């Protein structure tokens, strides 16, 4: 039996472990970069967001709830009135309303929507962030950063594609500052390690030396500064809002500016089995401004053309309202919002029935979403990799690119 701690690993407290793991770049030959996307940010709604109360409203139906539909800048897309700022940016985004999943349990669904494969403990799969890290150029700072969550691991992609997880940005900044303040001690340690290694040829000393060098390089880059919102303008702080999610989105923008290839930003609280409507209203108030601000900033900076932005969670929520005024797990319809890079904008992909209980017409699967994302990075959905137990495998499980989005 696999538990959450085994499935997802790493935290800011694992800073030095990250450096130890990230001590080489020769485990895999880099493939040619062919796609137009260079960066990706995932806004992860932990718990599973209600599609009916966000991006697939069903007004004046028994299942639709109290929220009214809101016209957007995309002529064919209406969203919930709970997202007024995002409505102004929908001409840059598309909504997938016909994605279906088979996983309705949190742990398994989290794994599925992070890797594109169902959980098989004996055959671990790499997170989307690890694959994108693997397929993008090397840097002196992490290419896969998770804000507010631990992040799914790299599996056979290798330890250099492990997420650098930041639960507390201030703690991470203080750690980098400590490394810089003690640079002379770190240099002395490196010299002592080198002397010992040269004399005794100890492989462990080589590993330690590589880790120290990694830490020094990261401390001298702008990575730590990118985690700090205290130097941001008052205008940006206001636009992104005071919530933890808003601050993380602002950090994500700064990391993308720096050149980090993949950033995940988590917002918790979407497991709304009770008091769904009040909870969703509060959660949407927290995501509306920062999500819209992130799209606006990526557009104005010119980065939107080569940056994917994805909003999703484990699954959707039931059209039926339960006895606690909540909505339960509903993987049959799993909502996704996507935009940027080569993705077509302003498109509503697929549709659900009037009561939201089923997908009408064609449906897409999780592997198809991953195929679409990887395709944006120039990675073929059937590209082959080799696992650490020498078994061939592909980037997706027979995923096909979602035609309406390209």
Question: Layout of SSEs?
Answer:
Layout: H1 4-7, H2 15-21, E1 39-45, E2 69-71, E3 78-80, H3 84-87, E4 93-96, E5 99-100, H4 106-115, H5 128-134, E6 144-147, E7 164-166, H6 169-181, H7 183-200, H8 203-220, H9 223-226, H10 234-240, H11 244-258, E8 262-267, H12 276-301, E9 307-313, E10 316-317, E11 329-330, E12 336-340, E13 348-349, E14 351-352, E15 359-360, E16 364-365, H13 366-376, E17 384-386, E18 392-394
Parallel strand pairs: 1-8, 1-9, 4-13, 5-16, 6-7, 6-8
Antiparallel strand pairs: 2-3, 4-12, 9-12, 10-11, 14-15, 17-18
Helix pairs in contact: 2-8, 6-8, 7-8, 11-12
What key attributes describe this structure?
alpha/beta, 13 helices, Alkaline Phosphatase, subunit A, about 35% helix, single chain, about 400 residues
Tell the overall outline: globular
Radius of gyration, Cα only, in angstroms? 22 Å
Distance between the termini: 39 Å
Number of helices: 13
- What structural class do you assign from the helix and strand content? alpha/beta
The residue fraction in helices comes out at 25-40%
Number of strands: 18
How many distinct domains?
1
Assign the CATH class. Answer: Alpha Beta
Largest sheet: 8 strands, mixed
Low-confidence stretches: 4-14, 20-34
By CATH, the topology is Alkaline Phosphatase, subunit A
At the fourth level of CATH, the homologous superfamily is Alkaline Phosphatase, subunit A
Strand order of the largest sheet: 7-6-8-1-9-12-4-13
Q: Quick check: average pLDDT?
A: 88
Q: What is the CATH architecture term?
A: 3-Layer(aba) Sandwich
Strand content: 15-25%
